[in-house]
Amino acid sequence: MKVARFHPAARDALRTFPVNVRRAFGKAIYDLQLGHLLSMPLSRAMPAVGSGVAESQGDVVMKKRTKGVVARTAGELAEILGLERADGIEIAVRSALNTKIIEVIAKRKLTHVQVAHLAGTSRTRVTAIVNRNTKDISTYLMLRVLGALGVSAKVTFGRAA
Questions:
Q1: Of 23, 48, 69, 140, which sees the most CB atoms within 10 A?
Q2: The domain at 93-148 falls in which architecture?
Q3: Rounded to whole angstroms, how far apart are CA atoms 44 and 102?
Q4: Where along the chain do its domains lie?
Q5: Which residues in the chain land under pLDDT 50?
């Protein structure tokens, strides 16, 4: 997993955002740490800068060398964003659900409409899931989509660090 580094001033500014915004931002950053690509409305391509370069909403530019605050796990990321430990767990679980849905859809070569029909939801919601824009998508719906795709989820428990 890639490391996320935050300028202390950026961390402090992020902590002033509403909790729902910090959760959505946390999931987007965690997905990037795992190497996933984001798309609109979370990110947009910048081909003029270079191949594979994208701008994300909320970018912060560091002008001077300052020791950054580092997040290596979803738990550390939640702490930096001023969220509860449970939010870090939720970020990791929702990211794993999101990844599995995307993998199964790609492997089975299903359209968004086909998945929506199987899961009894709208194509718009399926498109949001595939684009990793799950801010307004419930965990229940993600589990329902997985179930409709013939995948079961297994929950395991471990000691929190």
A1: 23
A2: Orthogonal Bundle (1.10)
A3: 19
A4: 4-88, 93-148
A5: 58-64
